[in-house]
Amino acid sequence: MALKKEPEKHANHERWLVSYADFITLLFAVFTTLYAMSQTDKKKVEEVMQSLQQSFGMVTAGAPSPKINVIQSKPISIIPTIKPEMSVAPSGRARSGQARTRADDKDFRQIKSSIEAYLVKQGAQNKVNLTITRRGLIVSLKEAGFFDSGQAQIKQSAHELLNTIAEVMTQYNNPLRIEGHTDNVPISTAQYPSNWELSTARATNVLKYLLKYYDAEPEKISATGYGEFRPVTDNSTPENRAKNRRVDIVLLSGEGERGEP
Q1: Taking the model in full, what pTM does it have?
Q2: Which pLDDT score is estimated for 260?
Q3: Phi, psi dihedral angles at 178 (to 5 degrees)
Q4: Which of 2, 14, 122, 173 lies at a C-alpha separation of 20 to 30 Å from 135?
Q5: What percent of the chain lies above the pLDDT cut of 90?
Q6: pLDDT tens, position by position, 50-91
Q7: What is the distance between the alpha carbons of residues 144 and 31, in angstroms, rounded to a whole number?
């Protein structure tokens, strides 16, 4: 007896849906994992940035991260940075071992502008006068700002201002002349019998200050006192006499140096 043949099963054309669903599921899992990893890394990066900013004092904890300016927009000056925080004499020589350059007319103008800007900022324009002549740059320290009347000791309150001036001027190898001047009012004390002694003592004390704290070159610095005999104006009024009571720090030019002994 012949066996009965079973009818052929119809091909299942929808089996691909199972594979497609598996593929979509795996793809979703991959992208979900990548997204989670990216968010974790971003959070970690932000935490590291905030930690660094807090360490350098750029932001306080909980504050939004500020924009960091890598390049500042301030103009660059070749004049050394003035340090207004120096309120007392420095503890050591400021420029020991540093190579010095020679100042020319251009440097004189830049030094003058730098110190004048600092004087304006500190409200000390009436304590110092700056001029440029054929001799060089002359920085006049007025008595009222640096010395008590009839005394040669530099006032403690004047150290900050003198530090600023000394720091700028002693970086050059031009000779320095410290010149003391008085008005024509006679003085006669046990310590200073005349204006000669007073003017010379003031100049010498400024010289000692530069040698002690700012490594001025001894062979290129000197002090002298002219008393009342080289005034910048007549002594007819109290205002004029105040202008004549001064100590000049002269950074000599080449021409000025040739005129010195």
Answers
A1: 0.65
A2: 78
A3: -105, 115
A4: 122
A5: 60
A6: 665 665 555 444 444 444 444 344 443 444 444 443 334 454
A7: 78
